[in-house]
Design a protein that fits this description.
Low-confidence stretches: none
Mean pLDDT: 93
Number of helices: 6
Shape: flat
Number of domains: 2
Distance between the termini: 33 Å
Radius of gyration: 25 Å
């Protein structure tokens, strides 16, 4: 198996995986979405809320506010499987005390740990009118995406098989099929008498070009064991950390399965 990184930024990573199978690639995708730990606000104690927003809605908005969850932030925090996880004070404590008139933003959340704070400062939480007050205590804990979407580290985690475009040299060149491509993957070059492939990895395999070709000049398929994988996050974790942790989790699950099989499946 070969892996080649195409692009990488703070919140997005695109890479090519060659000589792999669909079940393996899909297992990585699922682990990245639901088995990688992330920090999010879980318990909310609303002492006072004079705003027009219901307590439940406000708590929900706090829970979905992305918090820094890189490896340094996660270190030492209890996991859901630990006994102390249920305790309110076992998490990272946040305070939110504001008085209107103003719009309360994510930057107004005061954390007990300087490392763990909202990823973005400008997320609006609630709007307060004149003399309206909110007083909130909250506890952020580590969780998994399989329990709630707020703990999903990825906003996009998807793959597609590597596109393959071929031309039928036994028929006349159909230049019009290139115009049908909605993504500009193809370009007609009448001077050199051929159709150029500009960016095959951008091909969605929609086959608009195939349908537009009246004589079957172009064919669109895919390489069965090659994949284009894309991971995007909300900024809480770097995509590379998500991928590496997902691979670790998958490896641990495989080891447990092997051990279970070797012991005869009695436990």
């Amino acid at each position: 198996m070969e892996i080649e990184v195409r692009s990488q930024s703070d919140n997005e990573m695109v890479f090519i995986v060659r000589d792999a199978e669909v079940p393996f690639i899909n297992a990585i995708r699922r682990c990245a979405m639901v088995n990688v730990p992330k920090i999010a606000i879980e318990d909310v104690n609303i002492i006072r809320n004079d705003s027009a927003m219901f307590n439940e809605v406000l708590a929900h908005r706090l829970g979905l506010t992305p918090l820094v969850s890189d490896l340094d932030a996660l270190e030492g925090l209890p996991l859901p499987e630990d006994e102390e996880w249920e305790d309110f004070k076992s998490g990272i404590l946040f305070e939110l005390k504001e008085q209107g008139p103003k719009v309360v933003y994510s930057k107004d959340l005061i954390s007990s740990d300087s490392k763990i704070k909202p990823v973005y400062d400008t997320i609006p939480l609630v709007k307060l009118k004149e003399d309206e007050i909110i007083d909130i205590e909250a506890s952020a804990k580590v969780g998994y995406g399989k329990e709630h979407a707020k703990w999903m580290p990825t906003t996009v985690c998807a793959y597609k098989q590597y596109p393959k475009i071929t031309f039928n040299e036994d028929v006349e060149i159909d230049y019009d099929c290139a115009l049908a491509c909605p993504r500009g993957v193809l370009k007609s070059d009448r001077r050199s008498k051929k159709i150029k492939i500009l960016d095959i990895e951008n091909c969605a395999m929609c086959k608009s070009c195939v349908r537009a070709s009246s004589n079957g000049y172009i064919n669109v398929g895919y390489h069965e064991n090659d994949f284009i994988f894309r991971i995007e996050t909300d900024g809480a974790m770097p995509p590379k950390e998500v991928l590496l942790k997902a691979c670790d989790v998958l490896g641990e699950k495989a080891d447990k399965f092997i051990k279970f099989s070797e012991e005869g499946g009695s436990k």
